[in-house]
């Protein structure tokens, strides 16, 4: 995709994926990569920031002799995601209007 993704939109994508279920980093990256070109090295600072803002918490689960760190959305993260969704609807509507040449209602 040629369009750049901003940090707020990336945050919204991560929170949205985690709203469905808890995930560990690699699987989370694969889910986000389905719609956004992102690497694990880009995603982990995002996860740390979201955790610092209390939008996510982590927990470890043993797997094949090691621990996997899982990410889980918090209630505060759900509230933030709801705000992102509301903002996205308005933003998308405005961009669609400009790109399609529609008149403002």
From TrEMBL:
<protein>
    <submittedName>
        <fullName>PadR family transcriptional regulator</fullName>
    </submittedName>
</protein>
<dbReference type="InterPro" id="IPR005149">
    <property type="entry name" value="Tscrpt_reg_PadR_N"/>
</dbReference>
<dbReference type="InterPro" id="IPR036388">
    <property type="entry name" value="WH-like_DNA-bd_sf"/>
</dbReference>
<dbReference type="InterPro" id="IPR052509">
    <property type="entry name" value="Metal_resp_DNA-bind_regulator"/>
</dbReference>
<dbReference type="InterPro" id="IPR036390">
    <property type="entry name" value="WH_DNA-bd_sf"/>
</dbReference>
<feature type="domain" description="Transcription regulator PadR N-terminal">
    <location>
        <begin position="14"/>
        <end position="82"/>
    </location>
</feature>
<dbReference type="Pfam" id="PF03551">
    <property type="entry name" value="PadR"/>
</dbReference>
């Amino acid at each position: 995709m040629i369009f750049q993704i901003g940090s707020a939109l990336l945050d919204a994508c991560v929170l949205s994926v985690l709203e469905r279920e808890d995930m560990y980093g690699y699987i989370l990256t694969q889910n986000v990569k389905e719609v956004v070109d992102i690497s694990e090295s880009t995603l982990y600072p995002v996860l740390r920031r979201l955790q610092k803002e209390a939008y996510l918490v982590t927990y470890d689960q043993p797997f094949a002799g090691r621990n996997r760190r899982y990410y889980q959305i918090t209630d505060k993260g759900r509230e933030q995601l709801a705000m992102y969704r509301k903002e996205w609807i308005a933003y998308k509507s405005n961009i669609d209007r400009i790109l399609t040449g529609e008149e403002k209602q």
